[in-house]
Amino acid sequence: MDALFSQLFAGLSLGSVLLLAALGLALTFGQMGVINMAHGEFMMAGAYTAFVLQTFIPDAGVSLLVALPVGFVVGGLLGLLLEVTLISRMYRRPLDTLLVTFGVALVLQQLARDVFGAPNVDVRAPAWLSGAVPFLGMNLPKTRLFILGLAIACVVALSLVLKLTSLGRRIRATVQNRDLAETSGVSTRATDRLTFFVGSGVAGVAGVALTLLGSIGPTLGTNYIVDAFLVVVVGGIGQLKGAVIAAFSLGILQATFEYSTTASLAKVLLFVVIVAFLQVRPQGLVSVRTRSLA
Amino acid sequence: MSAATGPVPGTATPAPWWRRPATRVWAGVAIAAVVLFGLAPALLSDFRLNLLAKFLCLAMVAVGIGLAWGRGGMLVLGQGVFFGIGGYLMAMHMKLSDAGPGAVPDFLLLYGDGVVPGWWEPLRSPVVTILAILVLPAGIAALLGLAVFRRRVRGAYFAILSQALAAAFAILLVGQQKVTGGTNGLNGFRSFFGYDLADPVNKRMLYFIAAGVLIAMVVIVRLLMSSRYGELLVAVRDQENRVRFLGYDPANVKVVAYAIAACFAGIGGALFAPVVGIISPADVGVIPSIGFLVGVAIGGRATLLGPVLGAVAVSWAETGLSEQFPSFWTYFQGALFILVVAFLPQGFASLGGLWRRRRAAGAPAPDDPPVGSGPDAARELASTDAADGAAQEAADAARTAGRNA
Amino acid sequence: MGTGLYTPRDTARWHAVGRARTGTLASSSEAKGTPLTTHTFPLRTTRKRALALSAAALAAALSLSACGGARTADAAAGTASASGGASCVDTSGDTVKIGFLNSLSGTMAISEQTVRDSLDLAAEEINAAGGVLGKQLEIVAEDGASEPTVFAEKAEKLISSDCVAAVFGGWTSSSRKAMLPVFESKNSLLFYPVQYEGLEASKNIFYTGATTNQQIIPGMDYLKEQGKKKVFLVGSDYVFPRTANKIINAYAEANGIEIVGEEYAPLGHTDFATIVNKLKSSGADAVFNTLNGDSNVAFFKEYKNVGLTVDATPVVSVSIAEEEVGGIGVDNIVGQLTAWNYYQTVESPENSTFVAAFKEKYGDDRPTSDPMEAAYTSLYLWKGMVEKAESFAVADIQEAADGVSFDAPEGTVTVNGDNHHIAKTAYIGEIGPDGLIYSVWESDGPIEPDPFLEGYDWAEGLS
């Protein structure tokens, strides 16, 4: 029973990491159809932001809290730069954006290697995040609770933005019918840029959060990118809800498989489940109904 | 090749025979044959020739990708899987025959339980091995393709799924060390169907086989593309729904191209193993799978010889450049991806075509598109014509023209 | 989740395996001595036809070219394999060429660059001191690009095109495995500087890193001495950890230690919640860690987060050296144990000289570690062998190798002529708050290498 709850928590925690990694993608891929392979590198940029800030701000707690917004801006600016220089010319060639952004990812990684050195760097966790919270006989690590909370906060913030703000309305309008939105006076170019900024910014935040769990190195992003895309594919495009459900389901499934078999086999099993799932629901869990031929 | 020389819509004038696509293609194949069978073996040292053989194996994968991606519009990010299946089948056969009848290969003694698993057993036979190499990758691709394409999973979804497949396959190979050799893969082959691999003459023979197979593949693709099926495939790429309304099932059309691409990748892998002397999970994962695409993109995805030339050129450059400038190579590779795909989507092959047309039409471009329509509009218009790669090519020409105008 | 796109950096730090115990050296020497063509394949003529057929099947449309290939082989079958053993090494001038083959790009570059640096240092020192047999060393440097296939390709280039007298390098087991057939068929020499999982002994390779009885077994000896009874095994999913754990299981059974869990994570795995959960509920009183690269970071952070401590459940790691400590974070790992044959803090005049020279050349912030020291030592051992043999020829060096010794930074090492490994001292180290590792236990003098664990009763049937 104890193990069951611990595993449930491990799954939720894994799900929250996946969610953070996939949330930005749910915007850029899900809403705009851009396959951004450099998304992982934006996460890496966020993680290095936390590292750099820590050299200026000695207090680990303060620097983490500062790193979250700064990471958002760094990731967002990188995304904006990418959108303006490359992606904006390629909206009609989604598959080609995949390759172009893969090239960008390679360059960013090598850049990180040359700037920060190939070895991993360490970001100290603040004292108030060390240790665990006892709960129903389990010890829940504070860092994982923090990430879970952060993921939920990001989802809530994003959905509020999408629902209540004018930017949100413009984004939704553009996603649902680009031409009509344009005709109605929405600047789809500006909307695209902002969406990309926000989506990439969330990647930066995810990167900052990941420093609490693992290593910070040039290949940080690549460890998550495939999984993050799978989350979006399973979740379905067009709504954040899908990504949230998919992230937590995949997290729990992975943790369960891993507990009952091995970590390697769990990955393979997960893939099988995803292919089978797409047989049943090729459009993912949640999809916006459109009248286009799919 | 046919794409590179396809007539630009609106400027169709009957070409003299030496300008006709068919003539060009066969001339290209003939030149390639002369280079591969005549010049290369005469000029290159054994070491360089073996290197070329390795590149030719990679080029086989590229030919398949050219078909599936360039002509069929399916971005196959998981060709490493089929490359790996072919490679491991061949490698396993070589390990089994090196061990001798009834004996157990060394890696199974070291990591495994010291017995040959039942499903490896049939690979003792050379005939079964070759059949398996030809059939298994294609079969798996066909099954997967049916599952995926029938449900109309396509575009980015298909690309991501095929990529995840490559990731899962590599993990599976590593995890099942007892029967696959784990990260070390399979290596230390001594003979290839009874031929001593340490013998330079036999290495040379492997090269000739690789060259012959590669040319055969190019010819097969050429024949396919000039058939009714080829027209359908391109039509599916450009207007899947229109094809469906005409009464064809696009899923079947795509599955065939995907299966052929997988088969070519499998054969490439099967020859790669003896040429290089090792096949390991590092050759089949996500990164090598994307790596296969670079050459195709650079050479020209929708052309016949572009993928081959691109793949060989990129591998050659990598070998040469990475020695002197290890970190420079990564930048260079990234930049190639970005520049070629973003600004020259039909690869360097389109440069030749552009140049020819421009010269033929006098200055500065075949037909100036209306100001403001831009490349994308041209592409959209053109793609409805669905005439081979010419559609995208025309858009490209228009793009360049627009930029110059 | 979190196994990624790329093979993680530091991929296979450890190594994998070779040939079966039966006839390892024998088979390679056979291969050298007699023409393989007649020896191995008596059915040559009929086989030839089969090949032509199969080639024809492969190249369905161009059977002509395929048969052409086969015929070429027919004609030349008689002269086969003679060129395999011929060496093009030129020792007539006042220089001699040697090859350095390390990954300078790709995931392994981070580790292998350090090995290259210490090889360069050793070559510089040797040249400054007059070279080898009066000849200056001329280095041909190559990049293995972290890919086994590239290692094989470059090894062949170094031997056949550059005609080097010996090659130094390789790191991952798969890189060594890929190079082994090249060195055997070309009859050249490879000096391999990284500790690995044993079960290999090629006449054409000298192994200057530890084999299992010089690293894994001392690690377990130490835990046994500390009275640990329940050991949990965690490792990355590849050859070295699996082989090491096979040995540990046998050791544990013979020594009354219980293995309470054995878990593998895919290379680059970054989420250890489940594995650490299993570790925690297993009641283990020690952990033997064969994880490598990035995974260590995630593992130790998780270990700390769930409240495990070094006092109750110490971790012995075999792939964390000085340069990895910083990336994991000293806070997360201070007090944990490692098993190696060298630390920067080893106290000896040779080591002081080595560390000083290294820092002088590469900067004060660069630590020295076990594989670097083994690489440095390997060049000096080769020099010792050449001088003893008074020849650069492979056969002479193999002949002279036995008993060649060198006062290395780690202590005196001696080459074992039978298995081409070297006798080394084992040190168990504790990670200090300054990020360096300090020895807390050492073996009684150098341990004789025993790659097939033939000297251990409990290891019967392992290989």
From TrEMBL, chain A:
Q: What is this protein called?
A: Urea ABC transporter permease subunit UrtB
As given in the record, the signal peptide range reads none
> Of which family is this protein a member?
Belongs to the binding-protein-dependent transport system permease family. LivHM subfamily.
Q: Where in the cell is it found?
A: Cell membrane
Which Pfam family would be a valid example here? Answer: BPD_transp_2
**Keywords of this protein's UniProt record, alphabetized?**
Amino-acid transport, Cell membrane, Membrane, Transmembrane, Transmembrane helix, Transport
For this protein, the record's NCBIfam families field holds:
urea_trans_UrtB
In the UniProt record, does the keyword Membrane occur? yes
Its topology with respect to the membrane?
A: Multi-pass membrane protein
Transmembrane parts of this sequence? 6-29, 63-82, 94-112, 145-162, 194-216, 228-253, 265-282
Q: Cite the source lineage.
A: Bacteria, Bacillati, Actinomycetota, Actinomycetes, Micrococcales
